[in-house]
Queue: 2 jobs
Job 1
Amino acid sequence: MTETKPPLDIYLCAPRGFCAGVDRAIQIVELALATYGAPVYVRHEIVHNKFVVESLKAKGAVFVEELDEVPATKQPVIFSAHGVPKSVPENARELNFFYLDATCPLVSKVHKEAMLHDKRGHEIILIGHEGHPEVIGTMGQLEEGVVKLIETVEDVAAFEPRDPNNLAWITQTTLSVDDTADIIAALKDRFPAITGPNKNDICYATTNRQEAVKIVAPKADVMIVVGAPNSSNSKRLREVGERAGCRQSLLLQRASEIDWDSLGAISSVAITAGASAPEVLVEEVIEAFRTRYDVTLDVVVTAKEDIIFNIPRELREAAIAAGVLEEGPKAVAVN
Ligand code: SF4
């Protein structure tokens, strides 16, 4: 006699998973490997996902935390999607490294904002999380101490500006949209003359994934975010799921991390993935549910994404010359 599986509705968020910046960063490493051969050196995890990092290692990428771990080489050294302080490319030039920058163009845009505010003489506040590589990279676009970090509404209350009428703010790209709105409101309330972007610097991918979770999580008994514990946007998605009223909101790297006993009696699950989590891991989680439940899958589309970023021109040209990339229409950055 075959065992009857209990029914389970899975609500699959769309969009989810890879964003244009992550896709571009991975393409840069893969294309560099195909063009220049192994090894290529990558400073920091190219994107915050162990599965992605391990797959690239298997193809010949060597991951380091700092440039002093790279031997003297003519092979490319690649900077991660999170961006780097200015001192890193400077150091790479001193060491005669050939480097490729996989910084997401939306992070580079925030770097440019910081430099422009500095040029205009504003004191700069960065809303972000201390220690995150993107925050280190953005603060490192200017001399140490020029960019002040604010993490909470309480930090706004405690902040002592040089001149309250000459302030500017920028943000990390992967923050909670709602928490950031509160911090910006507190800044504007305390410093009405403060200047900044129209809304915030949180990127389209972070915003869209959080919006999807807000819509889907209240329908489900459990919210599962596929993503890494050091991925800022994935951690925010788990929090958004919790705040949206989901009884259990979990951040998991792989299906093997699901604690089936603690899920309890459930009839619905919502699933999304952070911007650095590959789709194959989402499929793995869905398959794990299929082995235990009679699954009805409902893809909930809350936004359409068609953003693509160009790879660096010098890599593109070298890849075409090496015959590993065909000449064709260029991908166009539309954001
Ligand atoms: Fe770029 Fe946003 Fe993706 Fe980060 S999450 S790599 S800022 S698109």
Job 2
Amino acid sequence: MYPAADTATLLIDGKWLEADDGATFPVTAPATGELIGRAADAGAAETDRAIDAAAAAFGPWSAETAYARADVLRRAHDLMLERAEDLAVLMSTEQGKPLKAARNEVRYAADFLAWFAEEAKRVHGRTIPSNRRGHRFQVLKQPVGVVAGITPWNYPMSMITRKVAPAVAAGCTIVLKPAEQTPLCAVAVLALLEEAGLPPGVANLVTTARPEPVGERLLADPRVRKLTFTGSTEVGMRLAAGAAATMKRVSMELGGHAPMIVFDDADPVHAAKGATLAKFLNTGQACISPNRIYVQRGVVEAFTEALVARTATLSAGPGTSPGVSIGPLVDDAALTKVQRQVDDAVERGARLVLGGTRLTEDGLDRGCFFAPTVLADIDETMLIYREETFGPVAAVIPFDTEEEVVARANDTAYGLASYLYTRDLGRATRVSEALRFGIVGVNDINPTGAQAPFGGVGVSGLGREGGVEGLDEYLDVKLIGTAL
Ligand code: ADP
């Protein structure tokens, strides 16, 4: 069990290993810049061996009963909840989110283990009446084989269980490459699965500071039959293109540019509360973060006032400090991008109502902190209207009619989450059906859960995670025709 040595963060065939050449990379706390550990910096050779291990483990693991696979996942779920506080502290330190949010994420991560433990037992096939006499059709669902999983830093545990749990439940084996910013969270999750009884080789971990060579091996190897990725649209498109060479199945969970629409029949204060909670969750570093907040003219003033009042109460700091609800941004590049979007909007006529700058007082200069920000009078000419922000900036856009706002909300290549506030049932139904997004929250800022299919359309991705659909992504359909 981990840790054999601090830097033995590769899990290959049930053994915790260092990189072949002993290379490591630093892991730092984004709030303070402090070194909190080192991880093994693996390359192509270690990746190949991880694939070997996953390929060798596939036969026996897929031959286990679904009940046996479910038992392991259920034990992992229970262990995760037992260790929830330690895991949350690790996540808050390594990723930066407030401890309360980290606790929520640990619970969310555990939910995937429990959900797919149950769903493992429900991989039903079917029989289809044939159009011929003396003939039968039967449909089976079988595990796709070895899976490559690549995960991001913003939700460093739940994005792992959202992939590993369904893969393992389906009878697949997996090689996971976590983000270079958060390898220790990945180690913690994999160690817990191992402790729960997952056999060697079923889930393998390759930590690295060099995603390209590792990604290349995962893409090139024909034994890897599926790639599941969460990250930026840009990288996702490149990886999907690479996966095509060996015709791997792909699930892509990419960027978003979520609209939130507040109609004037809604309570603007209630909607502003929801907007604040959704926008500043994870410091805006979420693919479902509302990036364009459309507010109908009649309530825009009341809404903005309530939004500013709530946002002004948010305090920034290291996630492990009490009372903090705004953690650091991931790095300098993120800070630069957010500042650029704010400056551009102001130059083009937006009103900066709150925040707008980096925070440097009281030691915050050691991390990349940006003040919770509210911009009003945003329009189509501004960068923030088109580009994902991934930071704590609420951009308020006035609108007049339902028809207009649906067209404007849909005017994006992204299509992940969308939100609307209205008390009118007819309008809620019309608008949620017209929005071209994979997810719609109706008076709901958290339309997600392990039991519900999460995913986007357009350049936001392919496939779904969670729900019944989340398991299907790891199953091939086999048709058996039998002449009697
Ligand atoms: P983000 O903006 O969230 O950091 P990225 O798409 O850059 O998004 O990163 C998401 C994940 O993709 C991380 O695990 C990162 O290491 C990985 N990644 C980035 N580039 C590549 C690549 N060329 N090959 C494989 N993985 C990659």
